[in-house]
Amino acid sequence: MLIAVPKEIHPGEKRVALIPASVDRLLKNGAQVTIEAGLGSSIGIPDDDYRKVGAAIENNRGALFQNADLILRLRKPPIEEIPLIKKGSIHISFLDPFGERFLIESFVTHQVSAISMEMIPRTTRAQKMDALSSQANLAGYVSVILAAERLPKIFPMLITPAGTLTPARVFIIGVGVAGLQAIATARRLGARVEAFDTRPAVEEQVLSLGAKFVKIDLGETGQTQQGYAKALTAEQLEKQRLGMAKVCAQSDVVITTAQLFGRKAPLLLTQSMLAQMRPGTIVIDMAVESGGNVEGSKLNEEIELNGVRVIGLGNLPGRVAVHASQMYSSNLHNFIEEYWDKDARAFRLKLDDEIIKGCLLTHQGQIVNEQIKNLKS
Ligand code: NAD
Questions:
Q1: In terms of C-beta density within 10 A (0-12 exposed, 13-18 middle, 19 or more buried), how is residue 135 classed?
Q2: Quick one: CATH architecture of 2-119+321-368?
Q3: DSSP tag of 264
Q4: How confident is the model over 157-215, as pLDDT tens digits?
Q5: Distance CA 370, CA 358 (A)
Q6: Whole-angstrom distance between the N-terminal and C-terminal Cα of the chain?
Q7: Does the pLDDT at position 376 exceed 80?
Q8: CA distance 87 to 362
Q9: CB-CB contact of 118 with 97 (8 Å)
Q10: Quick check: CB of 88 below 6 Å from ligand 1?
Q11: DSSP string for residues in 186-248
Q12: What is the DSSP letter of 167?
């Protein structure tokens, strides 16, 4: 089975889908691996490092698509590349399946089996393949480092002959994978951290990281079977904003990470809440790529509103591209190994497997994923 890895072509993307250590593992399982020349250059891995472990290097991107049985990449492909892919082959990457209807249809038309990394279920068995988590974890870390650099204060308390400095106050809104890492990172830097999430179950995790859980009574909030937050009603959201406004006004840094799987992110910080915050406060909108938690935040921009700096930088894990690539690459090789048939030396799509059922979107010219199928109708 020939596994091919094209270079990422999204502007500014430095992450790499597969690093040589993963190539080595796949080759040891009996796969053949071909990478596009220059695959690892954005993180300082020369082609020779791939060659040394046994990968073939291909200069012609079109030939790579034509010959591959399994294509691995990080970002969704541009739609014009789908017709280049061999019929009957498998394509694995992030796909933005709720926003990319035409792309999914193109996989159907060209009879490519598309696996979406976003749709891998958040179960214990799938943890090692969970790229949403691996990347969100790093994004949480980066958000705090970014905030610490932009804040005109230090994070820890400092008692010196020149006076005592109080610790920075950091408020994390949304305590999923990114939020937990943001809390842990801010705590390690010495900040005083508060956090809020609509899922009451996370309170214990917040406390165990040495942060305070902000209590706001929103009534029944609930979560989906997958553990994702449910959307709040308009009244609940208003209550939440009122409950958070005071904490925001007292904070030096507010990091919002709240997302709703497959839907637009909830608006949590309004202009009037921003107006109540102190000049110099840093706000990081980590949900900016899925609609934004902060009113007025702009993707890939840092704007100032009444002295409050609202940062909407996208692709935060891309800022630590070496580790982000290492983790994504592990997620991929773990996924492939899970379904690898050693005798046949091939990746097998087990159609009745829970993880495959969750993440396989198209197969043999049809949409096979229930969630995505239902979206269409
Ligand atoms: P996410 O990125 O979808 O959302 C981030 C956080 O925002 C979530 O904690 C969510 O509850 C919260 N949120 C949504 N609306 C909010 C609002 N109005 N105000 C405040 N917070 C709000 O979440 P994620 O990091 O992808 O995690 C999703 C779930 O999956 C979590 O329950 C997580 O623990 C779980 N998970 C499980 C596993 C596993 O068991 N293998 C792995 C990873 C994540």
A1: buried
A2: 3-Layer(aba) Sandwich (3.40)
A3: P
A4: 999 999 999 999 999 999 999 999 999 999 999 999 999 999 988 999 999 999 999 99
A5: 8
A6: 36
A7: no
A8: 12
A9: yes
A10: no
A11: HHHTT-EEEEE-S-GGGHHHHHHTT-EEPP---S---B-TTSPBPPPPHHHHHHHHHHHHHHH
A12: P
Where do the domains of the chain lie? 2-119+321-368, 137-315
Amino acid at 239: K
pLDDT one-digit tens code per residue, 231-273: 999 999 999 999 999 999 999 999 999 999 889 999 999 999 9
Copy the structure tokens of residue 289: 């790529």
Tokens coding 24: 């080595």
Q: Which amino acid is at 322?
A: V
Instruction: Note whether 112 and 104 are within 8 A (CB).
Output: no
User: Distance, CA 288 to ligand 1 centroid (Å)?
Assistant: 16
Cβ–ligand 1 distance for 319 under 6 Å, the answer no
Q: Which two tokens stand for residue 266?
A: 């909830």
Q: What is the largest CA-CA distance in the chain?
A: 72
- pLDDT bin (cut points 50, 70, 90) of residue 222 is confident
What is the structure's pLDDT at 121? Answer: 95
Active site residues: 122, 127, 130, 133, 228
Q: Strands, DSSP E only, in 221-327? A: 253-256, 282-285, 302-305, 308-311
Atom number, ligand 1, closest to the C-alpha of residue 227? 32
Ligand 1 pocket residue status of 232, Cβ below 6 Å: yes
Spatial CA neighbour of 286 closest among 129, 118, 137: 137
Of the candidates 171, 183, 186, the one whose C-alpha atom is nearest the C-alpha of residue 207 is 183
Q: Residue 289: beta bridge partners?
A: none
Full DSSP string of 334-348: HHHHHTEETTTTEE-
The CATH fold of domain 137-315: Rossmann fold (3.40.50)
Q: Which residues pair with 57 in a beta bridge?
A: 35
DSSP 310: E
Cα–Cα distance, 144 to 136 (Å, whole number): 13
- The verdict on the CB of residue 257 being under 6 Å from ligand 1 is yes
Amino acid making up residue 278: R
Of 149, 152, 147, the residue nearest 170 (C-alpha): 147
